[in-house]
Design brief:
383 residues; globular; 2 domains; single chain; mainly alpha
Length: 383
Amino acid sequence: MDTTPAASPIARRWQWAAILVASACVIWLLAPILTPFVFAALLGWLGDPTVDRLQRRGWSRHVAVVLVFGAMTLAVLITLVLLLPLVEKQLSTLIESLPTYRDWFIGTALPWVERKTGFQLLSWLDPDRVFALIRDHWERAGGIAATMLGYLSASGFALVAWIANVVLVPFLTFYFLRDWDLLKERVAALVPRDHIGTVSRLAKESDQVLGAFLRGQFSVMLVLGVLYAIGLWAVGLDLGLLIGFIAGLVSFVPYLGPATGVFLGVLAALVQFGDWYHVALVLGVFGVGQVIESYVLTPRLVGNKIGLHPVAVIFAIMAGGQLFGFLGVLLALPVAAIANVLLRYAHERYTHSRLYAGDRPGIELDEFVDAGIDRPAPNDDHV
């Protein structure tokens, strides 16, 4: 017979708080190496529903995983084959256009800023002045050069690590797909038995919210990238395809995608054409794209039941990036979706609690108002 005294509710809360803090510290310390694992886990989680559907149709788990993984790999390869030549051509155009952008910046943008503000900016870009500053501060320049050299060396190691992560992701994705149900069972086995029902319900809601949001938002990103790229290409921008794809790629952050696209598109139009007509066309492309996103894409592909407010998405991404770097950006939306589900559950518990309802004896008089009946007049004999 187990005679261990049960922990008080306050003690249990402190235990869970300590576990959460310790987990956050571990994630923060291991963030540089956890990124490929988290990315592969997201891919495995996205592909698991298709694997389960194939299993229900009679396929074995292993065959279903091979088919889904093969389809995902084929989709990535087709995308790379189609996009890499376009991206390479756009990057070559960008490199060739850099002198034009430099001349426009020095000959047009800076003089306009000087006329409007009164600041003398061009003198700071004079080559003789720059060389004089370097000569007068040679020692400091040498220190900066040494720092930059160290940074480039570290960047080289970072590039090697990035390539290793890219190679590692497909292998991890395959194993996550294969063992996803087993992982869920092992995690469920760790949940305290008296909370298994609540945790299962919250996990199911989080899965539905996050799945609908990520799959829908990915579709919106893809469609917007294509729309922006085609629209800017039709306007005549040499870098239209590149700018359109960038705007679509970052559109998962509310307002950042169109803002980035508008800034880059207007800049490219001013440098290439130098008139307000093409600037207006660029603004028209993004205006039409925003109307299509707001009234067609988001309602149909993402839906209104997700519950992730744009401000919450922006805050989650910025906070995750600040705390955990790129890993935090990957974890931002899953954590925001789970937090949203937990907040809804907490609100539900609160509205059914004595703290919300109170225990005043006269509260039943509100039932007359809810039913549309006038409250009974007070008895004058008791006044």
